[in-house]
Give the backbone structure.
Amino acid sequence: MEERDRLTVIKPVVLDAMMELIRADLDKLGVHHDVFFSEQTLHGPEGDIARTLDWLRGEDLVYLGHLEPPKGQLPDDWEDREQTLFRAKQFGDDTDRALIKSDGAYTYFAADVAYLYDKYWRGFQEMIFILGADHGGYVKRMEALARAECGDEIKLTVLLCQLVKLF
């Protein structure tokens, strides 16, 4: 079998087994979830990211534009190009944010855009995002996103945590 075909067969089985291990670990800690959300549901032409971007376009919250080059030394792979941008500055962020990469794939932030939108439309009024300490710069963009998508209808809390390994 070609590797791609093998992965198509094996991947769902392995993911299900891994999720069972995670659920068992959480159960031992007394943590129970009503819903496990898979980021995979966000991607693809029929996924939540595509639907969310359509909604954002209808609300004039995204546009085609150019980002400023990164400050300091330019990375070798940086290119000035037109791209789909979220109007984050309009909602308190320091720059607008790219949603689609040059290869056509969605950015990491685009998945967050769709996930927050999904939670809002499922009726969540308080949302807590827990991010690693290295994502401190992400807080403003998440707050801008919440204001753009939900106005004052939700309470968003972004917590930063540091992983520590004890010996």
Q: What stands out?
A: The beta strands are 62-65, 83-86, 97-98, 126-132, 155-161.
